[in-house]
Amino acid sequence: MTNASEQRQVPQQPQAGTQAARRPVDTLKQVLGAESVQAQFRNALGAHKDAFVASLVDLFSGDRQLQECKPADVVAEALRAATLHLPLNKALGFSYIVVFRNATRRPDGSWARVATPTFMLGYKGYIQLAMRTGQYRTINADVVYEGELGRVDKLSGAIAFDGERTGDKVVGYFCHFELLNGFSKTLYMTVEEMARYARRYSPSLGRDVTWEQLAQKANDQTLTRAVGWTGNFNDMAIKTVVRRLLGKYGYLSVEMQTALAKDIEADDPMAARDEALREMEEAKTVDEAQFEEVIDAETGEVITKPKEEEQPQQPQAEQPAQPKPRQRKRAEAEPVQTDLGGNLMTEEEPPY
Fold it and tell me: Minimal CA–CA distance to 290: which of 302, 306, 303?
């Protein structure tokens, strides 16, 4: 009895580093349990909120790179997927949360690499959003093997893949869609074009990675745990042709516009955004700033015609001042001459 009473009187010492040893997944659950966070997921997903939150916890628990990020940042990126009603399951391939190590400046002025979660759409996610609009009759994207590429009409943009496959080598990627109104468009990019595009616009690639090395990934069957261009080049390439084609020629709903804007943020903030904005500008068929409406004076019809360029006015050279002719002043005392009828006579006219 004495030993038992002594054991009850001895207080238990708290274990050192309890807070430091707290698991990242526990912190994530605490953030997800906040009422404000629950309300945002409820507004986005409704009755499917709990299933999505459970899948997020499962994704976070099995990804060591995500565990290096701030849980609040992971939840913020997950909300982007929730607003688009896309799952974050890696096996499905609709959307992902990819970790980039961005350079961040510390308070002391030094720089450090910080794990930053970033929401990214997969090519299946783009196709899913396009199907939801109800404006697409068909949409497809895939790899192109050697021998399959046929005739290419540069004028109309039509590309035929009616050739017979002669091997297993991937030579390019395509995306094709047709709207309900009959409009259709196809985009094709070779492996070399895709590798150069990735080398130029992807911030996740190190400086030591060349486009030649990326091009070899198209036919590399080695399985790795890497993600992105170095881990799954073909899927990233298919996503790129889908995004570029839909962003330039496709019917864009509000959801698709939001997805395109968010996905552009995952690329290089300067180069990729400028490239996407340039493609959107090229998609416009009429530049309103170059046309004006005028009314025909004869028929009263409103006509749209190109604006005439204003010619810059040339500065006129200053002319030297000409001296004014000196006028003869009539003397006050000089009599005024008139004719017989009483009309005033000038000096040039004779009085007769």
Answer: 306
pLDDT 10s digits, 253-279: 888 887 887 776 555 444 444 454 455
Write out the H or E segment, with its range, that includes residue 146: none
Cβ–Cβ < 8 Å for 152, 189: no
| Angle, CA 48 vertex, CA 42 and CA 49 arms, to 5° | 40
For the cut 80, the answer to whether the pLDDT of residue 291 exceeds it is no
Q: Three-state SS for 174?
A: strand
Cα–Cα distances in angstroms (integers) from residue 311 to residues 272, 298, 331, in the given order: 37, 27, 54
3-state SS string for 109-177: CCEEEEEEEEEEECHHHHHHHHHHCCCEEEEEEEEEECCCCCCECCCCCCECCCCCCCCCCEEEEEEEE
Structure tokens given for 68: 């290096």
Mean pLDDT of 340-346: 54
Q: Distance between CA atoms of 150 and 137, rounded to whole angstroms?
A: 23
What's the sign of the alpha-carbon dihedral 39, 40, 44, 48? negative
In whole angstroms, what is the distance from residue 202 CA to residue 218 CA?
16
